[in-house]
TrEMBL record:
Residues 4-106 form the RWD domain. PANTHER family: RWD DOMAIN-CONTAINING PROTEIN 4. The gene is Rwdd4. This is RWDD4 protein. InterPro entries: RWD_dom, RWDD4, UBQ-conjugating_enzyme/RWD. PROSITE patterns: RWD.
Length: 170
């Protein structure tokens, strides 16, 4: 049965960039587009006795490192309910689809755009520091380079027509 489920998964998700087969018994599925703050990655691994026993669900992927542990836990809890409802049947596809259908619900407690003082100080406070450092460095590095560039290029940063023509008529 595992072989059949494996082939089914491969054919269903063929060409789906969200799906990754880590090994013949371990799969990752990204719910949500890349760059979506509410995207998350579920990893499903099959123990030898799957599907009679529950698959191992994990959200430890580096991709999920921005998701709070409480949200991860609640997603896993909801998925486990689904697992128990489907014990004894091939359920990896069911789990991935269930997660896709319930993405918003799963992530409703994930602070993304919520304006709470806590998440604000985290979101704004931390990136500010490296950003300002980076800016200073860039300007120090290339003031003369910038000037040279500005002399050569127009306002769009493009070189004027004919900048590399050779002046033949003397």
């Amino acid at each position: 049965p595992l072989q059949m489920e494996l082939e089914a998964l491969r054919s269903i998700y063929e060409g789906d960039r969200c799906f990754r087969e880590l090994s013949p018994v371990s799969f990752q599925y990204r719910i949500g587009e890349n760059g979506d703050p509410k995207a998350f990655l579920i990893e499903v691994s099959w123990p030898e006795t799957y599907p009679q026993t529950a698959p191992v669900l994990s959200m430890d992927a580096f991709f999920n490192n921005t998701i709070s542990s409480t949200v991860k836990q609640s997603i896993l809890d909801k998925l486990m309910v689904e697992v128990e409802a489907n014990l004894g049947t091939a359920m990896t596809y069911t789990l991935f689809e269930y997660a896709k259908d319930n993405k918003e619900l799963f992530m409703e407690n994930q602070p993304v755009n919520t304006v709470t003082s806590a998440s604000n100080s985290i979101a704004i406070g931390t990136p500010d520091v490296p950003a300002s450092k980076k800016k200073d460095k860039k300007e120090q590095l290339s003031k003369t380079q910038k000037r040279k560039l500005a002399d050569k290029t127009d306002h769009k940063g493009e070189l004027p027509r004919g900048w590399n023509w050779v002046d033949v008529i003397k």
